[in-house]
Amino acid sequence: MDSILALLADPAAWAALIALVVMEVVLGIDNLVFISILSNKLPEEQRSKARKIGISLALIMRLALLSTLAFLVGLTQPVFSLPFQGPPDPVSGHPMFELNFSWRDLILIAGGLFLVWKATTEIHEKVDVNTTHGVLDAKGAVAANFTSAIVQILLLDLVFSIDSILTAVGMTDHLPIMVVAVVIAVTVMLVAADPLAEFIHDNPTVVMLALGFLLMIGATLIADGFGFHVPKGYIYAAMAFSGLVEGLNMAARRATRKTGGGGHG
Predict the structure, then answer these.
(1) How far apart are CA 181 and CA 175, in angstroms?
(2) What is the residue extent of each domain of the chain?
């Protein structure tokens, strides 16, 4: 209790909390886009429920992972190496021949591959007119679809949760700050989930843009797993710029429709 009171009186702890909340919310955007796209494929009455279950499971998973910080930190230790003809070592000048992989790397690679596969499949369904769309009518099929969506959300939750918590460990050593930041970030996700999903559903061009984001994020996770770190600021800056351009396109389309409608009146 004394340690928590000391944190409350420490300005550095508040600064770390704010930075951690911002980081968790930004990292949660990827997860939220994926949840929105998956849940929008369900019957309308099940979409909000699926989003709430998926995000709630993300909270439970992150809090559970926070209780095993020592185990998570151990995930960054190399478990095996592969021969690799890399660039010359900056110190010795000799080529590097080993590429080390930790459990975190393997999880990121698996999650990235899954995200690339899922985004590619969704894009194929959007552009292939012969692909069957719509909601399944049989109760068993709908249940399986709902369960499949929850399982896929849970798998990506695991990948994003491990990545965000390991990032949080590098920002602060205080577990209470991490817990509060996770709870605040997931609460923001819960509040934003339905409006974001409805916006994506109502704007088909945004769906394709979001799937492009997921492809880029999946490729980034794979690169990170192989040791090629891409600063996330670049990724989110590109996403923000693309979103701005798409917003301008949507405004232009609305203006065109209004002008056309006025001309016919």
Answers:
(1) 10
(2) 2-80+104-230
Q: Measured between alpha carbons, how far is 35 from 31 in angstroms, rounded to an integer?
A: 6
Whole-number CA gyration radius for the chain: 21
DSSP state of 39: H
Contact 176, 7 (CB under 8 A): yes
CB 159 within 8 A of CB 221: yes
CA–CA distance, 217 with 234 (Å, rounded to integer): 11
Sign of CA pseudo-dihedral 161, 166, 171, 173: positive
Could you report the per-residue pLDDT of 71-99, keeping only the tens digit for each? 766 677 777 777 665 556 566 555 555 67
Closest CA to 25 of 154, 175, 187: 187
- Say which DSSP state 67 is in: T
Q: For residues 44 and 202, give the distance between their C-alpha atoms in angstroms, rounded to a whole number.
A: 13
| pTM across the whole model | 0.69
Cα separation, 75 vs 61, in Å, equals 16
Supply the pLDDT for residue 2. Answer: 47
**E-strand spans in 18-162?**
78-83, 98-102
| 102: three-class secondary structure by DSSP | strand
DSSP annotation of 88 reads B
What are the C-alpha distances in Å from 157 to residues 32, 62, 215? 10, 9, 16
Tokens found for residue 2: 């004394």
**CA 32 to the chain's CA centroid:** 6
